[in-house]
Amino acid sequence: MPPMRYLIAAGSNQRHQCLGLPPAVIAAAWERLAQAKVVVAKTSSIIASRPVGPSRRRYANAVAIIESSLSPAALLYLLKHIESDFGPRRGQPWSRRVLDLDIILWSGGAFVSTDPALTIPHPLMRERDFVLGPAAEIAGDWHDPLTGRTITQLRSRNRRPKKRPEKSAKAA
Asked: Is the pTM of this model over 0.85?
C-alpha cells in the first residue's frame, strides 16, 4: 500500500528551554517527525500570527506535507506524543503552548472518528489564515473534500473584506 499524504499544521507560542524560540520549536518538530520514520516531503515558511482566544503571545505557524503508512488515528497518536515530549499545554484551550500539531487534510479525503480530536479536514481550517497561508505556499492545489475548493481558493475567500450590512432607508 502506498503511503498516505497528510497536511500537518504546527504552532508554537512558548519558548522551549533547550530549543529556544517558537520558530526553532517548529523546525525541531519536523525533525522529530522524520526521526519517527515519517517522510517530511515539504515544509512551508514559518510565519508569525496573532493569537486566537485568550493568549496574548504571538504564534509561530507552519505546515508540512508528510508521507506515512500510519492511519489517521495512529498519526494523531504520534503527533500528540511529540507535543507532550516538547512540553505540556498549560491552562485553557488556545492558551500558551510549546507545540501544537494538527492533521489538516489527508489524501484519503474526509475522515470522522469517534474521537472529536480526529476530524479530517480539520473543522476550523477554513477560518484560519495562519493555516491557509502556509498551506497555500506548499499545497495550494490540495482540495477540501467537503467544499471541493482548493487551499488557494479557501485562502482567497478567507481574506476577502467582510461586507458591512447596508443601512436601511429608515435608518438614513
From this structure: no
